[in-house]
Amino acid sequence: MSPKNTSDAVLMNSVPAKPGKRFPMRLEYDASRTRSPWWSPVLSIILALLLCAVFIAANGMSPITVYEKMFRGAFGTSYGFTETMVKAIPLLLCGLGIAVAYRISVWNIGAEGQLTVGAMAATAVTIYFPDLSSFWSITLMLVFGTAAGALWGLMTAIPRTHFGVNELITSLMLNYIALLALDYVVFGPWKDPKGFNFPGSPMFTAAQSLPVLGTTRLHIGLIFGLVAVAIYYLMIKFTRWGYELRLIGANPTAARYAGIHIKKHIIIVMLISGGLAGIAGMAEVSGVTHKLMQGISPGYGYTAIIVAWLAKLNPLGLIITSILFGGLIVGGYSVQTIGLPSSISEMLQGAILFFLIAGDMIHRFRIRRSA
Amino acid sequence: MQDPSVEMRGIVKKFGSVTASDQVDFSANAGEIHALLGENGAGKSTVMSMLSGVYRADEGEILVHGLPVKIRSPKDAARLGVGMVFQNFRLVQSLTAAENIVLGEKSSFWRGNKWIKNKHREIEGLAERFGLKFPVDRPIWQLSVGEQQRVEIVKTLYRGADIIILDEPTSVLTPGEVEQLFATLQVMKQAGKTVIMTTHKMKEVMASSDRISVMRKGRMIATLATAETDELELARLMVRREVEITRQEREASVGEPLLVVNNLDVIADHGRKVLDGLSLKVCEGEIVGVAGVAGNGQKELAEVLTGLRTWKNGDIEFDGQPVKSASVRGAIDSGISHVPENRMKSGLAGRLGSVDNLLFKSYRSDEHSKFGFLKAAKNRSWSQALVERFNVKTPELDTPVQQLSGGNQQKLLFAREVSHQPKLMVAVHPTQGLDVGATAGVHDLLMELRSTGSGVLLISEDLDELLQLSDRILVMYNGSIIGESDHEHADREHIGLLMAGIQNKEASAI
């Protein structure tokens, strides 16, 4: 197909060719270059910072000052840093789930909904079994949260494997269903009777809350995330399952010829993906908000897509990018004090993803001297 | 004698180390239907792709209407009035036929109802003139394959092509549609167009063309007037040997029956019967060659035997055991290995290194993994040993295999498939796209398998290869075996005719 993709530099030359009038370079498409270099995420971040600097400057502020303020807010103080980590936890868990699915090209964009149902299931434990011991509360909340997220993932997987329904659509649609179900329970059956009619479940008891570090809001969910990353790393690298995922990711046809059941793997991967997002939801209600309420997630499930992509699905990279994006969210709040909207951080997030994807595309072209 | 409208002189095209077109001369006249005949891989499509600007020739010159031209892109070709109808159509599924045809036209900015109506009328007129009926205002996905082809043809006509190339136009058509197509070609011919059609079907060539050029293995063999030749001569030209091929020396070592297939029926994805009462037998220590033109069920046969496809009726017995259902793992475990048709598409994972690619079929065994964990160090040394034994040239064990040469990729694939001592190997076009040295290497490996008592089912379109290696040759046509000969009596002309589906008396009386 290469001729279709060559640039106009080739096509410009009318027939018959006049010697000496040809453009000396041409672009050549090389579909085999699917892996972009390690520095492309770094370059994407730099370009995103430069692009957003233009907008900041247009608002009459110095980009340097703003970026410095953001960085200090996110990483400069111990309060800021723990807040960054608090945001990084759901990003890490959701991002990990997304990375597992993306490894075999299952495009799950439903982490937001999977997180939400996870949070709801964990809350259900506090409502229907209010008097359990601390151990049993947390364990049950974790199990229910994971199971609910996994089930939500399964609802994307089954239509894909059995009816060929595009998972992008089902997972996205299920997000809205989850969010509206959340609205229903916090306005309706689970509304706190002592909550002055504000939507939201009753506050969790201490037994229903995850332990935190000192006086900060940093909770033990961080350990969940790190353990999950470690397990994922080991599984991908050393197990038969990891090998099978690698094979499906690299060439699904060849995997089928090697006797691997791809449908089975899609289901497994979506269960894991949803389950991890469910854990993130459980950790949010139990560790941070201590009650179920509207807007339990400010878009963690979507931001996690960028986190996973920026990490190139690499488990160690995920830790770095989730902290980076946690910092971006916290930094966004801190620039509000100097009169910029916090949406500057969303703009940065979007710009990073834009440059990253553009980089992957551009990488497939080479500049060649015309023969 | 008129001047040719297209002339190609000394065209050379190489893909890596493989010469697809070797000093090809070709010419076609206005007002004639010129068939380019040859087996698959003979270089027909390559030569035509150079005329239509998809490829560029390494050497040689092209003259259109007597003027030397440089064709660098399909756009250049279109400007010269050369249009090509590809085997797989280049149509936008969601646009209507008319929209597809005017696609890319730059003449008008505003495209209101009136403009569209005019275009519809113009296209309908053009279509009617050439006897090409299709609904102009329906989206492509609603049209039959035959109708889609008509849209493609009208597209080239609409763009003012007077040299029209059709690449294997009949391969997708029903017999009725073929008749219609030929009628259209006659009209185009009357209109003074140059019609060039590539094909490997002799009957159609005889029925429709004025002149025939025969290609074989990248060379132009002969150009004949259709009226002065016959199918027998064409078959001879298509398959004639260039050099005396040396048969691989062998001892008779045929053992017990290994694979017995009886009356196998297979229905393809679109409900067509692709294998029709097929029966065959492969014994231990025997290479059975399956000859046939592509698309006669060879691919499906290989898929059934390797567990990738289910069958409707019939029995398969392997190694004394009846095979009950299609299972890839079952096939692998019972000792059937598979060298698939397209190694990079279904045989190897190009992004992964040699170790991962070698483990494909054996990673589940205790030797390579335990409790779900791969034995990394052991697998590495095992891979290293295989790479050395099969002489695969790779910079490192982890180098993505897509960076290896075709020959080394195939060696790696064979290393994997031979490493677990298969009882039966199903090899499909195992030397396609390989150069002479690599081909010889693959042949040696197949002979080695035979001498160790394994059975080989060799599916190939390369008759030389089949004659060289096979103990028996079966000819496949329309989903069944229509002829068989052992290697002492194998006759390439006879096989060539059978491949074309011709079973007349003079041919079968051998």
From TrEMBL, chain A:
InterPro entries: ABC_transp_permease (IPR001851). Its main location: membrane. It is a multi-pass membrane protein. The chain crosses the membrane at residues 42-64, 84-102, 109-129, 135-156, 168-187, 218-236, 266-286, 292-311, 316-335, 347-365. It is found in: Cell membrane. The keyword Protease does not apply. Keywords: Cell membrane, Membrane, Transmembrane, Transmembrane helix. This is ABC transporter permease.
From TrEMBL, chain B:
Keywords: ATP-binding, Nucleotide-binding, Repeat, Transport. Gene3D superfamilies: P-loop containing nucleotide triphosphate hydrolases (3.40.50.300). It comes from the Bacteria. The keyword Oxidoreductase does not apply. The keyword Lyase does not apply. InterPro entries: AAA+_ATPase, ABC_carbohydrate_import_ATPase, ABC_transporter-like_ATP-bd, ABC_transporter-like_CS, P-loop_NTPase. Residues 6-242, 259-503 form the ABC transporter domain. PROSITE patterns: ABC_TRANSPORTER_1, ABC_TRANSPORTER_2. CDD domains: ABC_Carb_Monos_I (cd03216), ABC_Carb_Monos_II (cd03215). SMART domains: AAA. This is ABC transporter. The lineage of its organism: Bacteria, Bacillati, Bacillota, Bacilli, Bacillales.
